[in-house]
Write a structure and sequence with these properties.
alpha+beta; OB fold (Dihydrolipoamide Acetyltransferase, E2P); 4-stranded antiparallel sheet
Length: 428
């Protein structure tokens, strides 16, 4: 009887740790190869982890709710066959449940693994290092094989902030390293909460921690600008009312306003390609594909699944794609692929009754647009007052990349497309 040691898997290139959600098998249970063994929560996704072998669960090493680094042994499975030595533990921490040591306390990685770990940096590590003017090659990584992790970069940022500052260079001759740091606002500690005996303190979930970190970083490093247009969607409302029951019966999904908004955004991105771009420190990446992220609220927090190649889908295709992603997001069944690759974000804030919002950019994207509630208002049409269905469309954009003229042109294209829809417009 051989013992197979199952370790915490890496569910994405930039993921460095995972939280045990629920064990789907208990000690003594039989498990087949590829059968779901447990649920793991990361800062990006909840996922069921399949068993790598068939056998009997012999020992569970990590309890639900515990967060451990990638590679940590989490259970043992007894496997029929010739005895084999358990998987080597050198790549895993000796104390899985203990927090990772600070860089100053971390043991030096094996010499043979340092070069391998040093040369590869995840996109999140590269971006964070670039934003703060830090050379990751100069940092001793605490990840597997000496790999530099996000925590290592954050520790270096904190150390740099605490260190005495060198004299400022002459304004006439700024250094290359100072440019990225100058663009970032200094970190400011939040005021501590006042906790009374009757209060309840709830620890942050992994998802909420990531949301908080990303929102703070976006507001501190991205110069947000904001504009809005009013759109007359009377024709769109009439079309949806006329076909929504038939659409649900035929296609099996509800027809909301979101697919129409996404289609209009696609037209806007085609007309103004700089809106479909990403900030890259000293360059701007103009994206070829149009992959629309859609903000979705779940019980675990906000996630942004991505509709890939949205420009290749009609209203029916967009309706099916968005509903599938929303359902899987709320059930905690999104994959890493569902959450990656976005080039622009659309938020249907009107679904919760808002009429005006100022959304936070999902960096490194350079724009996010919201569709507010559709409301009936008196407006002037042909010098007469008429009751029309109106909606506000709001845009936050990265002013490092996009100027007001381009942002305005983008919204005008979105507005024109939405206002061109009538009761007889085809959705196929």
């Amino acid at each position: 009887m051989a013992i197979e040691v199952v370790t915490m898997p890496q569910l994405g290139e930039s993921v460095t740790e995972g939280t045990i959600g629920e064990w789907l098998k208990k000690v003594g249970d039989a498990v087949e190869k590829y059968e779901s063994l447990l649920e793991v929560q990361t800062d990006k996704v909840n996922a069921e982890v399949p068993s790598p072998v068939s056998g009997i669960v012999q020992k569970i090493l990590v309890e639900p709710g515990t967060t451990v680094p990638i590679g940590t042994p989490i259970c043992e499975i007894a496997v029929e066959g010739e005895a084999e030595a358990p998987a080597p533990a050198a790549a895993a921490p000796e104390a899985p449940a203990a927090p990772a040591p600070a860089p100053s306390e971390a043991p030096a990685p094996a010499a043979g693994s340092v070069a391998e770990g040093r040369g590869r940096y995840s996109p999140a590590v590269r971006r964070l290092a670039q934003e703060h003017g830090i050379d990751p090659a100069a940092i001793a990584g605490t990840g597997a094989g000496g790999r530099v992790t996000r925590r290592d970069i954050e520790a270096a940022i904190a150390a740099a902030s605490a260190a005495p500052q060198a004299p400022a260079p002459s304004p006439a001759a700024p250094t290359a390293a100072s440019a990225p740091a100058a663009a970032s606002a200094p970190a400011v500690a939040s005021a501590p909460a006042v906790i009374e005996d009757v209060d309840t303190v709830e620890p942050l979930t992994p998802v909420r921690k990531v949301i908080a970190e990303r929102m703070v970083r976006s507001k501190q490093t991205v110069p947000h600008a904001w504009i809005m247009v009013e759109v007359d969607v009377t024709g769109l409302v009439a079309l949806r009312e006329r076909i929504k029951e038939e659409f649900k019966a035929r296609e099996g999904v509800s027809l909301t306003y979101l697919p129409f908004m996404m289609r209009a955004v696609v037209e806007g991105l085609r007309a103004v390609p700089v809106m479909n771009a990403q900030w890259n420190g000293d360059s701007v990446v103009l994206k070829k594909r149009i992959n629309l992220g859609m903000a979705a609220a779940t019980d675990r927090g906000l996630v942004v699944p991505v509709v890939k190649d949205a420009d290749q889908k009609n209203i029916v295709g967009l309706a099916k794609a968005t509903q599938d992603l929303v359902q899987r997001a709320r059930a905690g069944r999104l994959t890493m692929d569902d959450l990656s690759g976005g080039t622009f974000t659309v938020d249907n804030t009107g679904a919760v009754g808002t009429i005006l919002t100022y959304p936070v950019i999902n960096a490194p994207e350079v724009g996010i647009v919201t569709m507010e509630s559709v409301v009936k208002r008196p407006v002037v049409v042909d010098n007469m007052i008429a009751v029309r269905s109106m909606v506000n469309v709001c845009l936050s954009f990265d002013h490092r990349v996009v100027d007001g003229a381009d942002a305005g042109k983008f919204l005008q294209v979105v507005k024109k497309h939405l206002e061109s829809i009538g009761p007889e417009t085809s959705i196929y």
